[in-house]
Amino acid sequence: MTYVKDRDEASKLLEELKDLINRAFAYYVSHGKLGNDLLELRKKVGLAEVYNSLPKTKCKECDEPSCYVFAIKLMSGEKELYGCNQLRLPQYADKPATLSRMAQQIRL
Q1: Does pTM surpass 0.70?
Q2: 3-state secondary structure the chain
Q3: Per-residue pLDDT for 105 more than 80?
């Protein structure tokens, strides 16, 4: 049994894996070895916590299909916090600080 459909999908997955490894190595070169405190902090911040701290307006202004996808990309470092335009609105003034603290975790 295999989870990869075909050769093209396998090639794409391998390219994504290579990119992730390269980003991890670049992080290591620029920041040095990760401290246990950062690793523990990263474990405590989950996707649900990040998602629940977003405005969840489903506006798609960030060019993502949903706030959940934006949260995933925010955690992986593919998106920046202010990629969510809604966070600039006055009614969400308290959210950027909370999200910023979460985003200071290890972002490869």
Answers
A1: no
A2: CCCCCCHHHHHHHHHHHHHHHHHHHHHHHHHCCCCHHHHHHHHHCCHHHHHHHCCCCCCCCCCCCCHHHHHHHHHHCCCCHHHCHHHHCHHHCCHHHHHHHHHCCCCC
A3: no
